[in-house]
């Protein structure tokens, strides 16, 4: 009888460890960020950037301006070093979509791929060099009949502050230039 109890107890421990491991496994990402190339910006100038996100098929997230006040908006927050500024953040307009739980009501959502636009600025006093910018996308993903708890997606990208002119310097006309007429 003791042999059976120990075998049964061992079997239960084996099953229990599988359940615990399954609970600790990270869920599939519902929203992902498309990595960016280094953003180049000259001191005293601004450069447009675009942050592209992919939403898992069959899911949607609330737009930045949800149609109901109790819905959680999608927001991109930045942690910036002193020599770089993010300005003019522009969220795309949400798609008005109705869902099976209330076909008469349309919610403002993003699905598929969407892009958030902004401008990276470096003050004219910015130190030359490369900076790592950290950001977090706060969103709530939903399927047609249920929503998941709100989540934060961390992301990072590099900004190079320096001379952004590429290639050869431009020629400047002189008095002997054939393009100057007196």
Identify the notable features of this structure and list them briefly.
4-stranded antiparallel beta sheet, 12 strands, elongated, mainly beta, 13% helix, 182 residues, Immunoglobulin-like, 4-stranded mixed beta sheet, 1 helix
The number of distinct β-strands equals 12
Arrangement of strands in the largest sheet: 1-3-9-6
**Amino- and carboxy-terminal Cα gap:** 113 Å
CATH superfamily: Immunoglobulins
Characterise this structure.
This protein has 182 residues and is mainly beta. The protein contains one helix and twelve strands; from the N terminus they run αββββββββββββ. Strands 1-3-9-6 form a four-stranded antiparallel beta sheet, with no helix packed on it. The termini are far apart.
């Amino acid at each position: 009888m003791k042999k059976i109890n120990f075998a049964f107890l061992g079997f239960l421990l084996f099953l229990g460890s599988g359940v615990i491991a399954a609970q600790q496994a990270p869920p599939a990402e519902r929203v992902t960020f498309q990595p960016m190339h280094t953003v180049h910006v000259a001191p005293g100038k601004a450069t447009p950037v675009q942050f592209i996100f992919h939403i898992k098929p069959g899911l949607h997230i609330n737009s930045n301006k949800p149609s109901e006040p109790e819905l959680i908006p999608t927001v991109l927050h930045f942690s910036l070093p002193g020599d770089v500024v993010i300005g003019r953040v522009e969220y795309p307009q949400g798609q008005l979509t109705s869902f099976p739980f209330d076909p008469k009501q349309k919610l403002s959502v993003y699905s598929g791929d969407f892009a958030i636009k902004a401008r990276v600025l470096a003050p004219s006093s910015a130190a030359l060099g490369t900076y790592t910018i950290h950001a977090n996308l706060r969103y709530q993903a939903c399927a047609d009949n249920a929503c998941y708890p709100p989540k934060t997606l961390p992301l990072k990208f590099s900004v190079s502050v320096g001379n952004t002119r590429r290639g050869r310097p431009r020629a400047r006309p002189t008095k002997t230039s054939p393009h100057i007429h007196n």
